[in-house]
Amino acid sequence: MRQIEESGKNVEVAVEKALAKLGITREQAEIKVISEGGFFKQAKVVVSKKETEGEKALAFTEAVLEKMGLTFVVEMEENESEARLELIGTESGCVIGHRGEVLDSLQYLASLVANKGNETYKRIILDTEGYRSKRAEKLKSLAKNLEAKAVRTGRPVKLEPMNSFERRIIHSALQGSGQVTTVSEGSSPNRYVVIVPKITAPSKSGPRKKMHTFVYRSEKKRRR
């Protein structure tokens, strides 16, 4: 039940009765006063439960999937900081796209819809068939391989453009490295990570001396 009409001897009493029946707080409610009441008339209000950011994202995602002609069940888990939407269906490849481009775009739009007009930001995450976790593991492995390359060559290694979520995975994978640092460069949507080898201090023993090798050859005496 998302909406209820309630009455009471005054507006405050009517609102409290409605909130109790809906099981929500005043911050979670939208209140419309129908009548403020009087000596011989009770106050009447309509109290509705506000949509959460996750619910807004869920409704938007389902609408887009329907327009795309795809049949998915969308399950949601939501807390104060984020909402995770799991897309369950048989056409996951269509919503993932090349390297997750379709899924990332859908997630970005759902985040805009969910957080429109809000002072605080709630993170919206869309996933299907565990794609996010699998992608994260691949990026962590890539980060370690490119760290080795940067150290071996002594030169910065630039990765391909990534979204903010994937860039954070690279930064996190190498944040404890004693050999490289990571920085993000460029502007969205072409922002990318650069793995930079750290500069080591010169040896206190000074530069090595060059070793000169002298080759002595003996000439055989010719027989007369």
Structure, explained:
The chain is α+β, with helices and mostly antiparallel strands. The protein has 6 helices and 9 strands. It has a 3-stranded antiparallel β-sheet, with helices on one face. A 3-stranded mixed β-sheet has the order 4-5-6. The protein has a 3-stranded antiparallel β-sheet with strand order 7-9-8. Helix 2 packs across helix 4 and helix 5 packs across helix 6. The longest helix has 23 residues. The N and C termini lie far apart (about 120 Å). The C terminus is likely disordered.
With strands numbered from the N-terminus, the spatial order across the biggest sheet is: 1-3-2
Shape: elongated
Strand portion, in percent?
A: 15-25%
Order of helices and strands: EHEEHEEHHEHEHEE
Helix content: 25-40%
Radius of gyration: 32 Å
Give the count of helical stretches: 6
| End-to-end distance | 122 Å
Decide which structural class fits the backbone. Answer: alpha+beta
